């Protein structure tokens, strides 16, 4: 098999901004054959299929119908975050391997079910946490694990987007759905990136979570207000006693130097590390304004190819699926792809802890919700049972 026969489930904003380039204009495109598309939204379905010449009889409203009628090896599931479970299980149970964007789910019970279903059917799935392929994080992880900085004590990672990402009044719409910011929050959209990146570096398991949510800017938006948080500060305690503040939001003025402003600091027993993520790009001043370009994430090359870690990480997952289909993935590599970190289980564990913390507030004042502390071991035990939870949290 030279190419993966791929069905695409959902062709909204994430496909428009990232995955269309992965499919058709990247180093990985030669390994992919887009067979069919399923999306209940006719407008989204047709923009993609018309642009890339997908025939009418391979355009589906229903992913079930697409899976049953088409000969596919894999599916790329680009539904909203809380709708990953059903199409993933359907694909895995029908012999189809899967990839999806982060987060895997907002519920650890769902991630566990995906893992168990993949193993039962001898299938695999991968999750696009594309920051794992950021060369700066890879280098930092290798240096940290060499003992260069000693043991993590305190970390401070933050990532704040411009308001246009979450503002339903902004035109043109940044995301496809008008109620995106009301159904989601900075934790599910951004905190998952930062905590996943930190765990990639330090290889520690989270044990406790406590969150503070700010809902002051979003309700003031006009003419459409948003009932939701614009900023969340999450305190995570790890199994070695270290702590991390993960601060994420999406309400910077649109005059911010970039769509996403981010940075991190790690204080360790034998050293200190700063990672100003935006230093990987360059500043430009031109007729459209004063902008920061970050080609590390998405680089438009001279001959039309698109590269960068936003393309390479999901591309490598598809390469692994192709190798698996060709019996070139070892048992150890198979187990690695389905371990709790690779599948985003621990990231979802933190995300569900944040939701529980904010839903059990100790105090609310002036739009600020002070959440209670959530013991993640207790959360695991409640959701999965004491015996199953031991396999995730030794």
Distance between the termini: 40 Å
Q: Which structural class best describes the helix and strand composition?
A: alpha/beta
Give the total of domains.
Answer: 2
**Percent of residues in beta strands:** 25-35%
Q: What is the fold named in CATH at topology level of the largest domain?
A: Dihydrodipicolinate Reductase, domain 2
How much helical structure, as a percent, in the residues?
A: 25-40%
Largest sheet: 9 strands, mixed
Instruction: State the fourth-level CATH superfamily of the largest domain.
Output: Dihydrodipicolinate Reductase, domain 2
Kindly report the average pLDDT value: 93
Q: Can you tell me the CATH class of the largest domain?
A: Alpha Beta
Question: What do these coordinates show?
Answer:
This protein is 35% helix and 26% strand. The chain is α/β, with parallel strands linked by helices and 394 residues long. It has 2 domains: 4-131 and 303-343, NAD(P)-binding Rossmann-like Domain (Rossmann fold, 3-Layer(aba) Sandwich); 145-293 and 360-390, 2-Layer Sandwich (Dihydrodipicolinate Reductase, domain 2), CATH 3.30.360. Strands 7, 8, 9, 10, 11, 12, 17, 18 and 19 form a 9-stranded mixed beta sheet that branches. A 6-stranded parallel beta sheet has the order 3-2-1-4-5-6, with helices on both faces. Strand 11 and strand 12 form a beta hairpin. Helix 1 packs across helix 9 (309-325), helix 6 crosses helix 8 and helix 8 (186-202) packs across helix 11 (345-359). The longest helix has 17 residues, at 186-202. The mean pLDDT is 93.
Give me a quick take on this structure.
The protein has 394 residues and is an alpha/beta fold. It is built from 13 helices and 19 strands. Strands 7, 8, 9, 10, 11, 12, 17, 18 and 19 form a 9-stranded mixed beta sheet that branches.
């Amino acid at each position: 098999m030279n190419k993966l026969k791929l069905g695409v489930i959902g062709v909204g904003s994430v496909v428009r901004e990232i995955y269309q380039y992965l499919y058709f204009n990247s180093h990985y495109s030669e390994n992919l054959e887009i067979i069919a598309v399923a999306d209940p939204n006719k407008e989204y379905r047709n923009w993609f299929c018309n642009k890339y010449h997908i025939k009418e009889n391979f355009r589906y409203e229903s992913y079930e119908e697409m899976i049953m009628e088409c000969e596919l090896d894999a599916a790329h599931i680009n539904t909203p975050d809380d709708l990953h479970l059903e199409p993933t299980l359907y694909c895995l149970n029908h012999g189809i391997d899967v990839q999806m964007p982060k987060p895997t789910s907002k519920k650890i019970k769902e991630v566990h079910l995906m893992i168990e279903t993949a193993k039962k059917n001898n299938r695999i799935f991968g999750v696009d946490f594309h920051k794992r392929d950021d060369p700066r994080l890879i280098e930092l992880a290798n240096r940290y694990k060499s003992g260069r900085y000693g043991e993590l004590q305190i970390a401070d990672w933050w990532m704040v987007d411009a308001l246009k990402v979450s503002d339903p009044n902004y035109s043109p719409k940044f995301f496809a759905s008008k109620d995106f910011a009301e159904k989601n929050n900075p934790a599910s959209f951004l905190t998952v990136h930062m905590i996943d990146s930190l765990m990639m570096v330090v290889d520690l398991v989270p044990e406790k979570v406590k969150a503070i949510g700010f809902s002051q800017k979003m309700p003031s938006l006009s003419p459409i207000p948003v009932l939701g948080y614009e900023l969340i500060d999450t305190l995570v305690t790890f199994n070695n006693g270290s702590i991390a503040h993960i601060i994420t939001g999406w309400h910077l003025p649109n005059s911010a130097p970039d769509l996403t402003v981010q940075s991190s600091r790690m204080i360790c027993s034998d050293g200190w590390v700063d990672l100003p993520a935006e230093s990987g790009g360059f500043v430009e001043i031109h007729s459209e304004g004063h902008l920061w370009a970050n080609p590390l994430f998405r680089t438009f090359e001279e001959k039309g190819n698109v590269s960068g870690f936003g393309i390479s990480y999901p591309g490598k997952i598809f390469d692994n699926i192709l190798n698996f289909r060709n019996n070139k993935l070892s048992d150890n590599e198979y187990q690695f792809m389905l371990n709790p970190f690779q599948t985003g289980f621990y990231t979802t564990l933190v995300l569900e802890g944040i939701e529980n913390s904010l839903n059990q507030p100790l105090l609310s004042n002036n739009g600020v919700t002070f959440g209670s502390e959530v013991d993640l071991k207790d959360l695991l035990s409640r959701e999965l049972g004491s015996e199953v939870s031991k396999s995730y949290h030794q």
